[in-house]
Amino acid sequence: MKTNRFTTEQIIGILKEAESGMPVKELCRKYAMSDASLYNWKAKYGGMAVSEARRLKDLEEENRRLKKLVADQALDIQMLKEITKKSGNALSQAQDSETLAGTFRAKSAEDLQTCWVISFNMAL
Q1: Complete DSSP assignment for 28-76
Q2: How far apart are CA 47 and CA 22, in angstroms?
Q3: Rounded CA separation 106/112 (Å)
Q4: Gap between the Cα atoms of 119 and 124, Å rounded
Q5: pTM recorded for the entire structure
Q6: pLDDT tops 80 at residue 59
Q7: CB of 15 closer than 8 Å to CB of 41
Q8: CB distance 38 to 24 below 8 Å
Q9: What mean pLDDT is predicted for residues 26-50?
Q10: Per residue in 85-116, pLDDT tens?
Q11: What is the rounded distance in angstroms from the CA atom of residue 66 to the CA atom of residue 72?
């Protein structure tokens, strides 16, 4: 990932210099940047205070984190759908609930309850 050479505070300072009347070419030469960068910053940070820019950066980071979370959940849902589809095919192949229940061996009361829950879920 590309890292920025300038912090948000520095960008706001450069924009304030541009607003005060300093020519764009001179600013670009002074800070060794392209004029396209300056215009992009103007579009993004124009008229903002430093605190607003920090807030924007925090919101962008939170948005990135939430998008990642949603993507992970979408993958989990897709995986569960695939598992459900496969187990649904297994259920249709079973002759009856006796055949299906016979595949599970209960060793304790907890195992019996687990087998019942699994067979009930597969019947749905």
Answers
A1: HHHHT--HHHHHHHHHHHTT--HHHHHHHHHHHHHHHHHHHHHHHHHHH
A2: 16
A3: 5
A4: 9
A5: 0.52
A6: yes
A7: yes
A8: yes
A9: 91
A10: 887 765 555 544 545 455 545 455 555 455 54
A11: 10
